[in-house]
Amino acid sequence: MANSRVLIFVDESNVVSSVRALGRKLEWLKLRDYLTNAGKGRQLIEMVIYAGLPPPMAEWQSERDKKNKFLHWLRSNGFLVVAKDGSPGDGRHYKANVDVLMAIDAVELSVEMRPDVVVLVTGDADFAHLALQLRRRGIRVEVASTAQTLGSGLKGAANEVVDLTPLFEMFDALSSGEQ
Has this prediction a pTM greater than 0.90? Predict the structure, then answer.
């Protein structure tokens, strides 16, 4: 689709866990360029990244500071970031579900910005209804995920699936100290 205007929505925790499962570091600028596919005449309108923050509690402050530093880097590199405070989970984990924010924004921004293509960067099958809603509005929907994490309902709701595994395999390997 030459001269297509592209709007990208990223479920940060989903894509980060997918790339880590392959033992790689996520290279955000390369991911953006790959999904925009400007070589085929596509133009990026916006890439919105939805991220959960550790809870605003003393025991989570170190992780929260690290995550905020990362989100600052994303913003400094032209990404639009939507962050949500998490709540404590079990043990060392926290829960910060951004799915509803991403779904509402995807519909609203698509109506306002009128993209030709929306790319959903997630494998979460909960986004299948969103993909169908966007398609009903005449928007081409591409889902970018790894085959291992792609829910079948989401796969069937999209116009096209972009397997990120070959891209992720080109990224730098995680060192033994990284997770």
Answer: yes
Residue 1: DSSP 8-state = -
Closest CA to 45 of 71, 74, 79: 79
pLDDT digits (tens, 9 = 90+) for 54-89: 988 888 899 899 999 999 999 999 999 999 998 887
Tokens coding 94? 């926290």
User: Token pair for residue 82?
Assistant: 């939507």
Read off the CATH number of the domain in which 98 is found. Answer: 3.40.50.1010
Give per-residue pLDDT as tens, 147-173: 888 888 999 999 999 999 988 888 888
Tell me whether residue 15 is exposed, middle or buried, using C-beta atoms within 10 angstroms of its C-beta: 0 to 12, 13 to 18, 19 or more: buried
The tokens for 55 are 């809870």
Domain residues for 140? 5-168
| 13 φ, ψ (degrees, to nearest 5) | -65, -35
Task: Decide: 161 and 145 in contact? Cβ < 8 Å.
Answer: yes
Domain count, the chain: 1
* Tokens matching residue 149: 């994490």
Q: Hunting for tokens 């960067």 — which residue is that?
A: 121
